[in-house]
Amino acid sequence: MTERGRVLFVDDEGAMRLAVSQWLTLAGFQVSTFASVEAVLAKISREFDGVVISDVKMPGRDGLDLLGVVTQRDPDLPVILVTGHGDVPLAVEAMRLGAYDFLEKPFVPERLAESVARACEKRRLVGENRRLRTSSRHDLATRLIGTSAAMEKIRADIVDLAGTGLNVVIVGETGSGKELVARCLHDVSGRSEKRFVAVNCAAIPEAMFEAEFFGHEAGAFTGAIQRRVGKFEFADGGTLFLDEIESMALHLQAKVLRALQERCVEPLGANRVVPVDVRTVTAAKLDLRDAARDGGFREDLYYRLNVAEIRLPPLRERKEDIPLLFESYAHRAALAHGREPRSLAEVQLHDLMAHDWPGNVRELRNAAERFALGLGVSLAAAPPAAGVDASLQAQVAAFEKAVIEAAFVRAKGEVAEVMRLLGLPRRTLNEKMARYAIDRHRHQRSAENR
After folding, report:
1. Which residues carry this modification: 4-aspartylphosphate (predicted)?
2. Which of 348, 367, 444 is nearest to 147 (CA)?
3. pTM here?
4. Does one domain contain both 366 and 257?
5. Residue 111: CA atoms inside 13 Å, Cβ hemisphere, count?
6. Claim to verify: residue 153 and residue 289 sit in the same structural domain
7. Across the chain, how many H-helices and E-strands are there?
8. Which structural domain range is residue 109 located in?
9. Does one domain contain both 23 and 155?
10. Interval 179-221: pLDDT, tens
11. Which residue in 64, 318, 337, 359 has a CA-CA distance of 20 to 30 Å to 29?
12. Is residue 193 part of a domain?
């Protein structure tokens, strides 16, 4: 018989432990029994993939105590409580505290087995979801490179949104990586087996808009020799990425809104509608909320598209990510062109950290590719991340933090190596880490994911 799940059963009565163990074993479960709360607690952790069943009334710590500890360790671990006392208030209190089920003795074996089966299935789904989230976070760390708090939040947001199916708006400057974020969102979602269709709205002439988005039949207009599937239909079941959505004319926005509301499109020249199921991920260089308020964007379309939002900070606001990004792009470029990977000199790293990067990640990637080909790093210096309006002290502090973060990236989080690179004693480095809230463990985790 295939094992249906693991069960930890706690009861101070030996006869009850034996009976329940036999019932559930015959039902296909793997059962371990315990005479006290203290004994079973040693077996319970977030990694435990089964279910806990406990009697409520026991000498010493009782079932409610156990429920409280389990809830603290892992609120997603199902706990089934049983009691020989017909106590409705107790049952209500147990469910309020988070019990999965509450059974009154005597109960028939089938009723217990049914409850355990449902609880085991819930636990299995929780474990599967956690494994997927862990895997997704690791995969994202190799694609969305960076150890800054901003990048960690973006990766977490992607994982959180991936399973929801919600429409998402990504806001960021040119070159900040909006399409990459959109692709990552698609790839970790349940739509990953279907197409990711990217459309640059600014590149489509108004006269061709309907044909491009909704498709057309053969003969629908001059030059329409054969039927063409539009972007909506082509992305059916997958993700439709609308880049530079702010450039779309208002009357065309109305057509997109209708397609999203009706979940269907009508190709040009057709007398039928085509059902479509797409998730939209939209990118904009400006705040669509402001554009809608000013009349430059349809407010109803904004609320349809912007169920959730991801904001990408410009590279100048996350300078601690620059060394790791540059190293990654340079290494890839060297491999692509058959060159030996090269290391940055300190003065070159200084130039990278001082540059303002108006072109964001796209500009950085181009610089890394030039460096990999032996063309050097030639960049105009720019004010540090604190900005020209900040005081000299604030600008110096921002630059110092960025340099220390860069050293941690190069040293893969090893403090001794950072001390060597920067020529700092341990006490001074510790003081600066505390002052700038630098977490070396974050860089160690990032190095492990690379």
Report:
1. 55
2. 444
3. 0.59
4. no
5. 10
6. yes
7. 19, 12
8. 5-129
9. no
10. 999 999 998 888 888 999 999 998 999 988 988 999 888 877 7
11. 64
12. yes
